[in-house]
Design a protein that fits this description.
Layout lengths: L6 H11 L8 E2 H9 L5 H13 L3 E5 L5 E5 L1 H14 L9 E6 L6 H14 L2 E4 L2 E5 L3 H10 L6 E6 L7 H8 L2 H24 L5 H15 L2 H4 L14 H23 L2
Helix pairs in contact: 1-9, 4-6, 5-6, 8-11, 9-11
Length: about 270
């Protein structure tokens, strides 16, 4: 697998990892320097920032000395704050389930597509048309997402237990493509476990090397806790690779995050 780190994805990852530590907005010159260290040229940074501005993720601003800069929108900051709990934390796996039941009028079917796509990106599995399910620990983030997208009028959320009739492990395998999820974890391990072994046996990286390595590792990892929403461990195969992938990212985070911050420091 050849990993693709797109400029737009790397900018989002940068803001999640380091951009929020800036006092005030991030200058455009700093974005160009810091994304350049990850192999992104200046025109690609500028065009990707423009797309993120159109999407409402970034807002144009000025630094104290008047330089052009960009800051996170309130919605983007909420999105990143919600993401922190998934990306950096060990999920508190709930024995209960969160059920989303929705109905969208035909004349607003574009909202139906948006709703389905966002539930899927949050990690929900589809039980039936208009009925989606996820581990109950995702309730707060799901509420934030539906409120941010103004979709709450179409959805009801319920919390409860699976009472039957098939064994829960069988139904989970229908609601989520566990083989595809396992493959994503294995691809992460194929790419980043060798990096970790090099760090364990070789010299300490320079701040720039740590920054670049951490940005790439985080850019790969941050999608996995959404694709794999923290399903109860007892419902997953015994050789589930997600545990090892999480351990590899946790050690990369411990070894690279703070040294990389020295390079990314405002």
């Amino acid at each position: 697998m050849v990993e693709q780190h797109t400029p737009r994805s790397l900018i989002v990852t940068f803001y999640g990892a380091y951009g929020r530590s800036f006092e005030g907005p991030v200058p455009v010159a700093a974005l160009i320097r810091l994304l350049g260290a990850a192999g992104v040229d200046a025109p690609s940074v500028r065009s990707s920032v423009s797309r993120l501005k159109r999407r409402g993720f970034l807002l144009p601003a000025r630094t104290a000395d008047g330089s052009a800069a960009y800051e996170l929108s309130p919605e983007a900051r909420q999105l990143l704050d919600d993401g922190d709990r998934r990306i950096y934390g060990s999920p508190q796996r709930s024995p209960q389930w969160l059920v989303a039941v929705f109905s969208v009028p035909e004349q607003e079917r574009h909202k139906r597509h948006l709703l389905r796509s966002r539930l899927a990106r949050l990690g929900f599995g589809a039980v039936a048309p208009g009925v989606w399910i996820a581990p109950a620990q995702l309730a707060e983030e799901t509420s934030h997402t539906l409120e941010r997208l103004r979709l709450t009028a179409y959805v009801e959320l319920f919390r409860g237990a699976h009472l039957g009739f098939a064994p829960t492990a069988e139904t989970v395998a229908r609601w989520w493509d566990l083989a595809a999820l396992a493959k994503q974890h294995e691809e992460f391990l194929d790419l980043h476990e060798p990096v970790l072994r090099s760090l364990q046996t070789g010299p300490a990286p320079t701040p720039q090397e740590a920054y670049r390595g951490y940005l790439f590792a985080l850019d790969s990892w941050r999608r996995l806790p959404y694709a794999d929403p923290g399903l109860p461990r007892e419902l997953l195969p015994a050789d589930w690779p997600g545990d090892r992938a999480a351990a590899v990212f946790a050690e990369l985070h411990a070894r690279l995050r703070d040294p990389g911050a020295d390079f990314a420091r405002p």
